[in-house]
Design goal:
The chain has 183 residues and is mainly alpha-helical. It has one domain. It contains 6 helices and 2 strands; from the N terminus they run H-H-H-H-H-H-E-E. It has a two-stranded antiparallel sheet with strand order 1-2.
Length: 183
Amino acid sequence: MAERPPPPGNRTPRPRPAPVRWLETAELVTGVMLLTLILVLMLTQATQRHLPVSGWVWTGELARLGLVWLTFSLVSYLLGRDEHITLKVVDFVLAGRALRAVWILANLVVAAVGVMLTLEAAELVFGGSPQSTPALRIPLSWTYVIPLVGVVLMSLRALANAVLVPGPPQRENRTTDSGEATR
């Protein structure tokens, strides 16, 4: 198998077990499909405005649902690869055990929030609401399945990060314009 080039940025990748890589691939493929769906639906909706035919109302509704599903389907992927939106100031200020402690605490907080979101999402999915979406008539409880799966995976990934992963990916040493090595 060919050696992978280092990722862009200043981080070195962590080795991940094969099942985790498969799950990440599935999450990424799902995200790409949802992004493509949103693009096609938005282009269809924009094209309909310039045609002398009546538009399909469901395109906008499905695009909005797709955006929510995209967000929740990629949250675990981004958390597992440490590519989600975070403040990286701590990474440059702390090192060693202090950085590891912050890493563990942050992941435990994310896991706790994920568990609470999971409970709420499960209530929405299994609560048996009689409501449905206006245009497509999809039962609302069905629309919450992808967010439920996303927050469950996020919680599990955050727990795995806190317990199994030794810490955030290490920064690579770089040289500045003056030739000094930085960390």
